[in-house]
Amino acid sequence: MNLVLKMRDLEPLPNWTSDERPRMAGSPSTPYHSPVMRLAYALVGGLVGITGGLGNAMVLANLPQIQGELGLTPVEGAWLPAAWVMVNVSSNLILFKSRQQFGIRHFAELGLMAYVLATAFQLAAHSYSMTIFARAVTGFASAPISALANFYIMQAFPKAKLGAGMCVALGVGQLATPLAWIMSARLLDIGEWHVLYVFELGLALCSLAAVVVLKLPPGIRIKAFEPLDLLSFLLIAPALALIVAVLAQGRVQWWPDQPWMAHALIAALLLLLCAFYLEHHRERPLVRTRWLGTSGTIRFMVGALSIRLLLSEQTYAATGLMRTLGMGPDQLQSLYTVIFIGTLTGTVISAVLFGPKTVPPLIVASVVLIIIGGLMDRHATNLTRPHDLYLSQFLVSCAAGMFIGPLLLFGVNRALAEGADHMVTFIVLFSITQGVGGLAGPALFSTFQQYREREYSVLITAHTQRTDPNVALRLALQSQLYNPVVTDPALRSALGVAALSQIASRESNVRAYNDVVVLNTALAVIFLLWTTIRAIILARVAALPSNS
Which of 90, 191, 212, 411 lies in the 20 to 30 Å Cα band around 231? Predict the structure, then answer.
């Protein structure tokens, strides 16, 4: 393998020691840094990591406001975050080899320059179609930002502690979502929705300046690209984009009513089959199909997808419930402050405890925290307010901070055990499980919630008869609220009926969100049982005399 890499080197290698040499092409070397330099690398990595995720997080947090100010329908509004994910989820197919061939320093500066230009383009986009295009370009430009943040933060740790550094780097990326909710309300007070893009552009410019001033150490450059890589990308990228589009629009346009979704999934399947056939028969494939088909990789994929799906309940159910009860971004700032603290706490725990023997316990502990949080939230009412969710959402966000670092490093070690050429496959697999899982969770929960809401609405309406004395009294009370402003008794009665109908609808939604929490908790219990059984089997196999 080393001989192959030597033949493909694009420049002479420095005289690195074993501690300084990068583990693979496309990664920076790890020379000794003074404490001041380590702190500088950590600060730049934190800035870049927040920059990469904050833009899309702000769009998601303020989608109703952006949709209203642009005069968009819910279907049109849903395309704004979808366009970002459609491009972002497949970009690592190209970007990993880009930094291998062109060098980590060029990759860093060009990647951030592309992000700055894409963010500036959003400010210049005045039409809906141009805004969608700008979101897609930003999604592609955001992909190298997360890798850069990881590399910078890992420079702040000695090589023996790179696992802890990776946990911190991935945790920093997850802080973008709660930060977006905490900051958005104050930014919108300054001006309209475009202020969010101005702030994003400012962060991008600061990150670019920091990366230019404090450069990453050099790495190994090799000839990585092959002609068929482009064909594979042109097959896989649109397939993933179609899947993301269906997941993003399914709950808005409703799955059974849209034939184009079935056509999109069929087209995605055909494209993926063609790509897999091409990759399966290549000498040096972009995606290692044989490794993807192994039982260990399939288990990893199921586990990574399952945990991301379980964690998506926090952003869907907790936030959706509060919005249903009339809570806006201002009222949710305190809740997301708690989520921010929880994510930070989980990140610190995973970094401190990380080690070869602690990866499974950390993942199991994350699932247990999700189960506990779900059990605490399953009895919400229309009187539930953000402060009632502080403890449960702290536990869930702590689980989010704990799981991703150990899970990623577990997968990286599995890929490197097969060879460095398997890293493209793993990175694409991990980004797909996290990106698609982050969309599949809300799509599943939203569908389930809407079905349950309809059932509860029918049940409540069936028992709401005007001849019932309690219902008649409630209607009279609702009508009296309009006495100071409405003089027509018939209109007051109609308004009272409408108000009571809204109350019934709100109650149906609250009960449906409770069912979503119960469903997520049940899925977490199933996943915990599967993980426990798997751990017991591995322990027994390891204890056999032939393996001792």
Answer: 411
